[in-house]
Design a protein that fits this description.
Layout: E1 39-46, H1 61-83, E2 92-97, H2 109-123, E3 128-133, H3 142-151, E4 157-165, E5 168-176, H4 177-184, H5 193-196, H6 199-215, H7 222-228
Parallel strand pairs: 1-2, 1-3, 3-4
Antiparallel strand pairs: 4-5
Helix pairs in contact: 3-4, 4-6
């Protein structure tokens, strides 16, 4: 796994008060250039067959994928309330049973499916949105993430993360995938204006770095607990 670059000692920009959206919004990161709209892929991941909220239950592979699909049905419904339908193109879903900090093979069915979604966006001259259930809903492995992003630098590419924050059960955080790629490839620093002034991308990078260490069985630092626990209880 690629080693993580140390982040500059910089705290998060001041949080903004969360206000429920009154109407669907389009943030411009994944532009709608045609009636189809962007390619939207809803993604949920479990580390293993015990990674669920049913105490004592033993799930098999099919049951775990069904459990994850049910989470994505809820996520899709909430996403539509905030962003609208985003065009006529049917949305896609991908469920994953794989450790977050373990690299996904470029030959895996999962990687091929996600790459095909980005290729579809390229061919139709539109953007692509990965809607993640939790910050690590796809991966925390930097190589997995950067390999995918680097292939599609010409495609507007955004992460919408459905996670806890700002004192509400869940909300969406929007991160620019290409800025995330540039940071993990050490092309820009976390204190670069392009990231520091993009609060959700800044937060996404911080969360991926912190959760990656959690998945490696390292406890969060006191700074991470203070700064990030309100966005994910695992960091408390």
């Amino acid at each position: 796994m690629m080693s993580s670059k140390s982040s500059p000692d910089r705290s998060l920009p001041p949080p903004q008060e969360h206000k429920p959206s009154q109407s669907p919004k389009n943030n411009g990161a994944s532009p709608r250039t045609n009636a189809l709209g962007p390619v939207v892929v809803f993604i949920a991941r479990a580390t293993d067959l015990n990674d669920h909220h049913y105490p004592g239950a033993v799930l098999d592979q099919d049951q775990m994928h069904e459990y994850l699909r049910n989470l994505l049905v809820i996520t899709s419904s909430e996403h539509r309330k905030v962003y609208g339908s985003l065009g006529a193109r049917p949305h896609k879903m991908q469920t994953i049973i794989h450790p977050a900090n373990s690299k996904l093979s470029v030959l895996s069915r999962i990687t091929k499916f996600l790459a095909a979604a980005l290729e579809e966006a390229r061919e139709t001259k539109s953007g692509c949105i990965f809607v993640l259930y939790n910050w690590d809903g796809w991966t925390t492995d930097h190589v997995t993430m950067t390999e995918m992003c680097e292939q599609f630098k010409d495609v507007p590419f955004t992460f919408h993360v459905y996670a806890n924050g700002h004192g509400v059960p869940r909300e969406f955080f929007e991160a620019n995938a290409h800025k995330v790629n540039a940071y993990f490839r050490r092309r820009i620093r976390l204190d670069d204006d392009s990231i520091a002034q993009d609060r959700h991308t800044f937060l996404f990078i911080k969360m991926i770095e912190a959760l990656n260490m959690i998945h490696l069985s390292f406890p969060p630092t006191p700074d991470q607990k203070h700064e990030l626990a309100k966005y994910d209880a695992r960091l408390a």
